[in-house]
Amino acid sequence: MDGNTTRIEAVGIPSLVRLSATFLKLGCTAFGGPAAHIAMMRQQFVERDKWLTESEFLDLIGAASVIPGPSSTEVAMFLGYRRAGLLGLLLAGTCFILPAAVLVAALALPYLYFQRKALCEYLFCSIEPVIIAIVVQALGNLGRTALKSTSLIIVGVAAFVLALVGVSPVVVIFTLGTAYSLATWMRNSASRKTGPLLALVVTIALLLATPLIVSHYEPHTSTAPSVPLIFLVFLKIGAVVYGSGYVLLVFLKHEFVTHHLWMSPQNIIDAVAVGQLTPGPVFTAATFLGMVACGPMGAAAATVGIFLPAFLFVAIGGPLLPLVRNLPTFRSFLDAVNAASVALMALVTLQLAQATIVTAYTAVCAVLALIVLLRWRVNAAWLILAGAALGLITNLLHLP
Fold first, then answer.
1. Per residue in 63-100, pLDDT tens?
2. CB atoms near residue 114 (< 10 Å)
3. Cα–Cα dist 284/273, whole Å
4. Rounded Cα–Cα distance for residues 189 and 160 (Å)
5. How many other CB atoms are found less than 10 A from the CB of residue 341?
6. Residue 388: which of 343, 153, 396 has the closest Cα?
7. Could you tell me the pTM of the whole model?
8. How would you class 392 by CB atoms within 10 Å of its CB: exposed for 0-12, middle for 13-18, buried for 19 or more?
9. Could you tell me the residue range of the domain that residue 24 belongs to?
């Protein structure tokens, strides 16, 4: 990151109001996933407002890509920080997240009431296979990018096997990432200088600190969900999720289905479906699960928990990124983390598909959705709405 991207501009109250209004508008209209969100921000801040240049904007994207959390939301935070410091970071991030969080919480209310009704069963019976198809298509794209060498394929296979035998996703990701980066450092004599290595160690320590602290206080036995526990679980998830928002599935399934036994695999897929239907980050699936688990307070705790690490990483870790971002060792750490994340995502997708695609009808829905995605690249939100419509028609016709 160059010096321009960390420059904080002096702004007054009117500029702060405009900053908040702009990101609130983006939060209400940013459909289509992180790539679409970033494209909208580029159009707004580079082309229209001319707040920064094309190269500066690209540097912010690069900065967001090397810290955990929702990438497009972190780009919004970096933009706010560049414009008005920590207050701008807080305003930009909050205004971008808030519309989706409120809408997702509102959609969770009828879900709570209708989830055992026949209509809702038909509705989500058609939506859930569509989500599986969407994740499979994303998995293919991510796999081509992440598994770009033989060594990274080996990392992916190792992650798959470790997760299959029950090792925690957090342990899998950071163990393999650290091992791979150290192996790279040992092969590369140019990266053996004390300064860069120290910067690398400090950065990795920052990334590890939050999940390790949270894990220390998190009960390791099944217990009823509570607002504080929901907050801690999502705080840990928000601190370690790299890459696509779909990687979130790995951690949601581990925490809510496997570890705490709070929900079914179908609940997790339903949460991601609602997150896809609403604007803003798909991480607001956390809001949905928090609402289902503990009501409005649970929704608030889940939302704050999963996004808080992103605010902290941008505020604290951002100044360190120029020191380590271009180091081969640090890049190899991120490469290994991405490869492991894709492998974990593949395993969880397989497990969720086994729990979801259980009839000929759901299999047909999944296959048709995948064909449409691969052939026409339809926006995921429209495909989910089509699945919902099919479910309603099926219910009206009383089809099996």
1. 787 788 888 899 899 999 888 888 999 999 999 999 99
2. 14
3. 11
4. 31
5. 28
6. 396
7. 0.78
8. middle
9. 3-97
